[in-house]
Amino acid sequence: MQLAKPLARPRRQTLELVSRSWSWLFLLLLVIFFSLTGPGFLSFFNIQSIGSNMSSELIMALGQTFVIIAAGIDLSTGFIMGLAAVISAEVLTVLAASRLPLPLVIILGLLAGIIGGTIPGLINGIIIGRLRVPPFIVTLGMYGIAEGIAFLVEGGQPISVQVNGVGNLGNGYLLYYQSSAGFTFFNPPTGPHGAQLNGVVSLLPYPLIIMIIVLLVCHWLLSRTKFGQHTYAIGGNAEAALRAGIPVVRRTIAIYTLSGLLSAIAGVVYVLRFTNGAADAGNPLLLDSIAAVVIGGASLFGGEGTVIGTFIGALIIAVIQNGLVIIGVEPFWQYVAVGAVIILAVLVDQAKSRITA
Question: CA 20 to 30 Å from 187, out of 77, 111, 172, 256?
Answer without folding.
Answer: 111
